[in-house]
């Protein structure tokens, strides 16, 4: 009956049944303890083990039911805050957050067998509240990542997938929207500051052009550019450099070195080092790609 109530999200009935289990479990424990003190019959010990298993079952589902009750209360308070009250109350908003956090903690309360599903549902609700009320996208994004991690934990430990569940779909969609918005913001920011950064980088870019203009062939220009950029502007994503001697006749190996340099200086991999470095990497990759085309089709 407890499992059925839990599956039907009937936390009220589940709590009633689990609470009613306290008295018979207590009586059974006392009776068995009395017999254990005067006899050492294996059957008695087996009964003790069975009672302990029942107690563990009770505690596990009690945590789930209490987590669902706290989630329900937080959702009710949220609805009152947003749709019923005439004035917005910041104190009530923080009470909603406290309610979701309490639901999350309750889901974790049962030792080494936490309810990942209950924790994920409450975490997803908390994330949407941070977006809806506080417009805190960073905090909401971190919570949504936790939801996805919890879903993976469910799959690993329970061998059950929840990918079709609303809470998982909501978290996945929010993460994709956040990343798209972040990427669009980064592109717009770079475009806005690109011209000013190019002026600052002009001496460095002129030096790159000067190094390449010393030679006419794509092979020699590639070697010169590789040696210069790795010496003057070493990659930040990976500390490496090309061989000291490069054979200009081995076009295949040279092309691979150029391609590796493209990976090292690829702008999207260098976003965390400032816009100036990002723009410099973008200009370097343009030169490398141009040389790569010429090496393949001299």
Can you describe what's shown?
With 298 residues, the protein is mainly α. The protein has 11 helices and no strands. The protein has helices spanning 2-7, 11-20, 22-38, 42-84, 90-107, 116-134, 137-158, 166-213, 218-232, 251-265, 275-296. The relative contact order is 0.05.
Topology of this structure?
Blueprint: H1 2-7, H2 11-20, H3 22-38, H4 42-84, H5 90-107, H6 116-134, H7 137-158, H8 166-213, H9 218-232, H10 251-265, H11 275-296
Helix pairs in contact: 2-4, 3-4, 4-5, 4-6, 5-6, 6-7, 6-8, 7-8, 8-9, 8-11, 9-10, 9-11, 10-11
Identify the notable features of this structure and list them briefly.
mainly alpha, 298 residues
The number of helices is: 11
Rough outline: elongated
How many angstroms separate the termini? 77 Å
Rg over alpha carbons: 31 Å
Q: N-to-C SSE series? A: HHHHHHHHHHH
The low-confidence parts are: none
What do the pLDDT scores average to?
86
Structural class: mainly alpha
> Biggest β-sheet, characterized?
none
Strand percentage:
under 5%
Summarize the structure.
This protein is mainly alpha-helical and 298 residues long. It is 79% helix and 0% strand.
């Amino acid at each position: 009956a407890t499992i059925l109530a839990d599956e039907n999200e009937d936390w009220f009935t589940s709590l009633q049944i689990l609470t009613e289990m306290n008295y018979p479990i207590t009586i059974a424990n006392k009776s068995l303890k009395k017999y254990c003190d005067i006899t050492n019959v294996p059957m008695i010990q087996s009964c003790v083990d069975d009672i302990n298993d029942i107690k563990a079952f009770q505690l596990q589902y009690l945590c789930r039911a209490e987590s669902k009750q706290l989630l329900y209360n937080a959702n009710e308070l949220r609805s009152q805050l947003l749709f019923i009250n005439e004035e917005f109350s910041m104190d009530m908003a923080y009470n909603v957050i406290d309610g979701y956090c309490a639901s999350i903690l309750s889901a974790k309360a049962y030792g080494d067998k936490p309810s990942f599903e209950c924790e994920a549902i409450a975490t997803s609700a908390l994330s949407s509240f941070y977006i809806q009320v506080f417009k805190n996208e960073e905090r909401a994004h971190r919570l949504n990542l936790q939801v996805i991690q919890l879903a993976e934990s469910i799959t690993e430990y329970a061998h059950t997938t929840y990918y079709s569940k609303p809470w998982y779909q909501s978290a996945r969609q929010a993460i994709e929207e956040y990343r798209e918005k972040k990427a669009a913001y980064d592109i717009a920011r770079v475009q806005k500051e690109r011209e000013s950064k190019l002026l600052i980088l002009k001496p460095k870019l002129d030096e790159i052009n000067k190094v390449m203009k010393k030679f006419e062939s794509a092979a020699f220009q590639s070697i010169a550019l590789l040696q210069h950029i790795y010496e003057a502007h070493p990659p930040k994503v990976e500390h490496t450099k090309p061989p000291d001697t490069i054979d200009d006749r081995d076009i295949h190996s040279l092309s691979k070195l150029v391609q590796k340099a493209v990976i090292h200086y690829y702008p999207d991999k260098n976003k965390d080092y400032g816009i100036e470095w990002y723009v410099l990497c973008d200009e370097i990759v343009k030169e490398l790609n141009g040389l790569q085309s010429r090496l393949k089709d001299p």
